[in-house]
Design goal:
The structure is a single chain. This protein has helices spanning about 75-95, 160-165, and strands spanning about 25-30, 50, 55-65, 100-110, 115-130, 130-140, 145-155. Helix content is about 15%, strand content about 30%. A 7-stranded antiparallel sheet has the order 1-2-3-5-6-7-4, with helices on one face. By secondary structure, the protein is α+β, with helices and mostly antiparallel strands. The chain starts with about 25 loop residues before the first strand and ends in a 14-residue tail after the last helix. About 35% of the residues are buried. The longest helix has 17 residues, at about 75-95.
């Protein structure tokens, strides 16, 4: 994968252990019910179904619906980028610290038709200070099917107050509210 230096971990970055409460095989629920990526209450969202894998790795699936198309019969590139952002964000959830996307790179390798189920896998490639470096891949026709989308990202750890300050306290997000239950 040709990643920029902005999404590649610097020398000395480490891959930390997941939070002690993280269990392999555990499903990751939505961090917010109305989130377009993972929320169960968003009517046209991706409804990403994610599971914790070994280490700082998450696997997920989502099926491209009519509401997700750009060109007739094909997934919109922005929707695919959103899926990558969401699964990458689930990886940092395994650290049980609040992070936000600082940079997202997305490579589109092949068209993704409406009705297709994408199988995503994301992992942490290093953490340095407040920065987490991640990469992901989405496959068609199963976890070992042809790669359709690749992504790399830099996530930045923020204080929980970030969500109350910039989200206006929407849906009760306050410093004493856990964003990723």
């Amino acid at each position: 994968m040709n990643r920029s230096t902005l999404t590649s971990p610097p020398p000395g970055a480490v891959i930390p252990e997941p939070h002690p409460e993280v269990k392999i095989g555990q499903r990751i629920g939505p961090h917010y019910a109305r989130c377009f990526g993972c929320g169960s209450d968003h009517p046209t969202g991706l409804h990403l179904d994610a599971v914790i894998a070994e280490g700082l790795t998450v696997t997920a699936e989502f099926t491209v619906a009519d509401a997700h198309q750009g060109a007739p019969g094909l997934a919109h590139g922005g929707v695919l980028a959103t899926a990558m952002d969401e699964v990458l964000g689930m990886v940092v959830w395994l650290l049980r610290k609040p992070y936000v996307t600082g940079r997202l790179e997305t490579d589109y390798l092949r068209p993704v038709p409406v009705g297709a189920t994408l199988h995503l896998r994301a992992r942490c490639t290093g953490v340095s200070g407040r920065k987490a470096y991640l990469e992901a891949e989405a496959h068609l026709d199963g976890p070992d099917g042809p790669a359709a989308v690749r992504g790399a990202a830099l996530f930045v750890e923020v204080p929980i107050e970030h969500f109350a300050e910039h989200g206006g306290g929407v849906a009760g997000l306050t410093p004493d509210h856990e964003v990723n239950p």
